């Protein structure tokens, strides 16, 4: 199997997490941040999930798994401590669903790489299941390099790209600028402000 990295919009999707331990809690946090509607199926919850259940952060079905629990799910997370149960969950998942077996990613069609975000910048690292700890280590190292200054820089690049789409810039000029903006000098706030001012004046017809 060859995994293809993609970015997925889960806002408003129906997600079901089966399991009530640490892994289930991690998956829930990620799904919640993505804007999914989450149901957790488990007879018991750890302290973290129990606290969130009391806050009504998700729907809790206090029971063991049954196929009916995931019939309408867009995302299915098998995160129990029983490999046979996880395999059964995967087998009964809807054909349309994204499915993750937390104990054996190769059983499903969805894997969660180690990743970090700094504003619009998102970097993920995967070892295809060989060593999640190594993936986390590499992600942490990259996070130290791509700090909050990069988040501001990426916001700047986004704003520039939107301005360069205006008809005042030809396709060739747009391409030239997008390449030029990757230079070291444009990571400095004063250079960014100068560039944005130039783009705005060009659009308003006042640039010389």
TrEMBL record:
Keywords: NAD, Oxidoreductase, Porphyrin biosynthesis. InterPro entries: Met8-like, NAD(P)-bd_dom_sf, SirC_C, Sirohaem_synthase_central, Sirohaem_synthase_N. The keyword Oxidoreductase applies. Its EC number is 1.3.1.76. GO terms for molecular function: ferrochelatase activity; precorrin-2 dehydrogenase activity. It is an enzyme of class 1 (oxidoreductase). Pathway: Porphyrin-containing compound metabolism; siroheme biosynthesis; sirohydrochlorin from precorrin-2: step 1/1. One of its GO terms (biological process) is siroheme biosynthetic process. Residues 119-143 form the Siroheme synthase central domain. It comes from the Bacteria. SUPFAM superfamilies: NAD(P)-binding Rossmann-fold domains, Siroheme synthase middle domains-like. It catalyses: precorrin-2 + NAD(+) = sirohydrochlorin + NADH + 2 H(+). This is precorrin-2 dehydrogenase.
């Amino acid at each position: 199997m060859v995994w293809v990295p993609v970015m997925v919009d889960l806002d408003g999707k129906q997600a079901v997490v089966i399991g009530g331990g640490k892994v289930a809690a991690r998956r829930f946090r990620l799904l919640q941040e993505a804007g999914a509607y989450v149901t957790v199926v488990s007879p018991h919850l750890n302290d973290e999930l129990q606290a969130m259940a009391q806050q009504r952060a998700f729907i809790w079905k206090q029971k063991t798994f049954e196929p009916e629990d995931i019939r309408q799910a867009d995302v299915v997370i098998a995160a129990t401590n029983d490999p046979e149960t996880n395999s059964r969950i995967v087998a009964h998942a809807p054909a349309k669903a994204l499915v993750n077996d937390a104990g054996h990613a190769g059983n499903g069609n969805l894997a969660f790489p180690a990743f970090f975000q700094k504003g619009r910048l998102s970097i993920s690292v995967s070892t295809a299941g060989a060593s999640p700890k190594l993936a986390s280590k590499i992600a942490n190292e990259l996070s130290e390099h791509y700090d909050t200054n990069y988040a501001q820089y990426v916001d700047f690049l986004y704003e520039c790209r939107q301005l360069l789409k205006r008809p005042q810039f030809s396709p060739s000029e747009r391409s030239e600028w997008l390449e030029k903006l990757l230079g070291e000098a444009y990571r400095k706030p004063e250079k960014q402000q100068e560039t944005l001012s130039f783009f705005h004046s060009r659009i308003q017809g006042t640039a010389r």
